[in-house]
Write a structure and sequence with these properties.
By secondary structure, this protein is of the alpha/beta class. It is built from eleven helices and nine strands. The protein has a six-stranded mixed β-sheet, sandwiched between helices. Strands 5-7-8 form a three-stranded mixed β-sheet.
Length: 259
């Protein structure tokens, strides 16, 4: 396998970014953060992108930040590591395409934060979450303080963050931290099945739904109703909307083109 910290692959409109530092459980360092950002910058302007998958080589999706780098130059970490990762998280949130995290093994710190930033999370039954930041004497990053309370509620988020007790896959699913749990040997297959299902959908409608959901917290009810109305108007002007309506009336599957 390549020595690159991230391996990219493509299957039609499905793009995979695969973390490739298995000897350190894919702990993220500056080189990996820069490679991730460079890939995401390319993908955000890719009109053919339908689904993005984030995954990790070996027994862990990502076990957090590279602690060796923290020791060597802690003052540089906010700018050299966190800054490019923050831009990556913003691109993930802003992509029209759904983003799937495909995770396994110990997922801690930045790995947990990155999974929370994705739209859907498919977890192997071997997954073990740990917030972990307080164990290193620091606060969180990559938007975890935004996403975790919105996922599990404020008090549960504080419990997870302050105590940093391990959370197994079944409990993670119960809390809404992951979308679905599968046997470890089925993780790639299930992720691919979900990705192909999404890739066959109407991308403008999916992207509009994604942004409506993600930005709903910023608006009051009236503002959200208006955003939905505008979103519907955008979708209704597409060829995909016409195709979907005709397919429904003709009792056949719709074929979407993204136009």
């Amino acid at each position: 396998m390549s020595d690159s910290p991230i391996i990219e692959s493509r299957d039609g409109g499905i793009h995979r970014l695969h973390f490739n530092r298995p000897k350190v459980l894919n702990a993220i360092d500056t080189a990996t953060a820069q490679a991730l950002l460079a890939a995401l910058r390319r993908l955000q302007d890719d009109p053919a992108l339908r689904v993005l998958i984030l995954s990790g080589e070996g027994r862990s999706f990502m076990a957090g930040g590279d602690i060796a780098q923290f020791r060597d130059d802690p003052a540089a970490v906010p700018n050299t590591l966190i800054a490019p990762l923050n831009e990556s998280m913003q691109i993930i949130a802003g992509l029209r395409a759904p983003v799937i995290a495909s995770i396994q093994g110990p997922v801690a710190g930045a790995g947990m934060s990155m999974a929370l930033a994705c739209d859907l999370v498919v977890a192997a039954d071997t997954t073990r979450f740990n917030f972990a930041y307080v164990n290193l004497g620091t606060c969180c990053d990559l938007g975890a303080s935004w996403s975790l309370p919105r996922t599990v509620g404020l008090h549960k988020a504080l419990e997870i963050a302050l105590l940093s007790d391990p959370i197994d896959a079944a409990e993670a699913q119960r809390l809404g931290l992951v979308s679905r749990v599968v046997a470890a040997d089925q993780l790639t297959a299930e992720t691919d099945r979900l990705a192909h299902r999404l890739a066959a959908g109407a991308p403008i409608a999916q992207g509009t739904l994604k942004q409506l959901m993600r930005r709903s917290i910023e608006r009051d009810f009236a503002g959200q109703l208006d955003a939905e109305r505008q979103g519907f108007a955008t979708c209704a002007a597409t060829e995909d909307f016409k195709e979907a309506v005709n397919a429904f009336l003709e009792k056949r599957p719709a074929t979407y083109t993204g136009r």
